[in-house]
Specification:
Elements (H helix, E strand, L loop, with lengths): L9 H9 L6 H11 L26 H4 L4 H20 L15 H12 L1 H7 L3 H16 L2 E5 L1 E2 L2 E5 L7 E4 L6 E5 L4 H16 L4 E3 L10
Parallel strand pairs: 1-5
Antiparallel strand pairs: 2-3, 4-5, 4-6
Helix pairs in contact: 7-8
């Protein structure tokens, strides 16, 4: 028998919801896989209310109005684990986190551009993707920020990230700052997000962001 979903159709699902039937062990595992949740999550009562993210949600528009997907939650939790590892690796605080807490965004941008030598990176880059990689390397080298670029959850190619849900986030840990950029969208958009998340690090602000170009703030 093929390894297709072993669910007979809407009638089966309706019967499970009403309690007139119970899914088999194989079907239950298949449900968990389709929902991108651990099998054990189906054996406990559902959580009350919407899931809460462990960082400030600065997304706007439709992306903010819907609950976070399992993929987004998984990416954030994985980033927190990597941040904890990076914290153990480093032995002192990062002087760049919060460096521009009480200064303007223009001052922070000018200083970061000069420190990274942005114009030189542009000249050397052979493509947009190459420029993004060079910018990532420069941020890691100059600011000691761990930068993660990905379009899927971990290494699972069957779990793509949704570019309309979020563009990236920053964890402004004073010892182990981290930036994650969702590369599912355009290269230009991910470059903007990388620079934007660096700004959050420089003002010591955890943040989850959506793409401001695709999902502009009102007014």
């Amino acid at each position: 028998m093929a390894k297709a979903l072993r669910i007979r159709g809407p009638d089966s699902i309706l019967a499970w919801l009403t309690g007139s039937e119970q899914p088999t062990h194989v079907q239950t595992h298949e449900i968990a896989r389709k929902l991108d949740i651990p099998f054990s999550a189906l054996l406990v009562p559902p959580p009350k209310g919407e899931p809460k993210l462990p960082l400030p949600d600065f997304r706007c528009g439709e992306s903010r109005d819907r609950p976070p997907s399992p993929a987004l939650e998984a990416v954030i939790l994985d980033a927190l684990r990597k941040r904890d590892w990076y914290r153990e690796y480093r032995s002192s605080s990062d002087p760049h986190v919060g460096r521009f807490r009480h200064k303007t965004a223009e001052e922070a941008a000018a200083w970061a551009e000069s420190t990274i030598a942005l114009s030189g990176l542009r000249r050397k880059a052979k493509s947009g993707s190459d420029f993004r990689a060079r910018l990532r390397d420069a941020i890691e080298e100059k600011f000691d920020v761990l930068v993660l670029l990905n379009s899927i959850v971990g290494n699972d190619t069957h779990r793509p990230l949704d570019e309309s849900e979020f563009s990236g986030f920053a964890l402004a840990d004073p010892i182990a700052p981290l930036i994650f950029v969702n590369t599912r969208g355009s290269v230009a958009g991910s470059i903007f997000t990388l620079a934007h998340e660096l700004g959050h690090i420089l003002v010591a602000e955890d943040a989850l962001d959506s793409d401001p170009l695709a999902d502009p703030r009102p007014g």
